[in-house]
Amino acid sequence: MRQFKVLRVLLVLGISVVANQGLLAQSYPVKPVKMIVPIGAGSLTDIVGRAVAQGVSQAVGQPIVADNRAGANGTIGMEECTRSPADGYTICMTDGNIMTLNPFAYSKIPYDPNAFVPVAHLAELEVQTVAKASLPVKNLRELIDYAKPRPNQINWGSAGAGSTQHLIMEWMQATTGAKFNHIPYKGPAQLQTAIAAGEVDVTNLAPAAVAGYVKEGRIKPIGIIVGKRRSQFAGDTPTYAEQGFDLDFRNWLAIVLPPKTPVDIARRWNVEINKLLSDNAFVTKFMYANALTPTGGTPEDLVAIMQVKSRLGAELAKIANLKYD
Known about the structure:
The chain is of the alpha/beta class. The protein has helices at residues 2-27, 44-60, 75-83, 96-100, 102-105, 140-147, 164-176, 188-197, 207-216, 263-277, 280-287, 299-319; strands at residues 33-37, 64-68, 90-95, 117-125, 127-132, 155-158, 181-184, 202-205, 219-225, 252-257, 292-294. The chain is globular.
């Protein structure tokens, strides 16, 4: 009889927890929410984060205020996210490099990517490989054939050590035997200027960042990393996959919550974000305008993506002997 009483108490407690979670989801939020953005203002991560914040704030009836905590390749912001209360009043923008590359590039980081509560995968970025107009190549195969007999003579520009451009270059060297001369710049803005001016021979940038230069004839696209489909932002540029290069290294954007935040809060956010990503006006203005492919899906989908991307991050960090500290 005692066992039945204990079982009944546990059952009542379980029902109570479920009911309380349901009430939490219904009443949340009742005050302003802070969004930590671990990249500087004006960045793509910041632009999309603020757009999501504005859209969701209208849906939930509370302001969502962006708080940029930039520095150390996103580690400062994600450490702040880790230390934030798990009450649903802090949400965190993040990206693929922060979540699946930093853990292998630093000997120690102040956050555990797997400890965050997943909310939603927001978007995938595309990476377009471009060459200066005078370089006598039309595609990636021709670039490799041209570079091999000219070791370290072809300048490959990047936005800094450990950047997407740098890692793609290292992967190309490791898999093809070609040797390029790495020219790091302080960031994407400086790199854009450099490739447009012909200071570097080749680099990788988002299609939206180079579209104007391509139209002017200052640079030419020779490949794009977009998976196994054709890009909707880069015309007839052949993909890496079409040219026989098995590399799908693209950055991506996502939202997570501080560790131990109630799961139903994450579900609430997930619902609102997926609504935004199904809104044609929102997608056109904030995604397509920045050459982003909206994704969405469940929190579990984000976990699965992180697992796949982490394996690639480990591989690329090893190839590049990447050590930030």
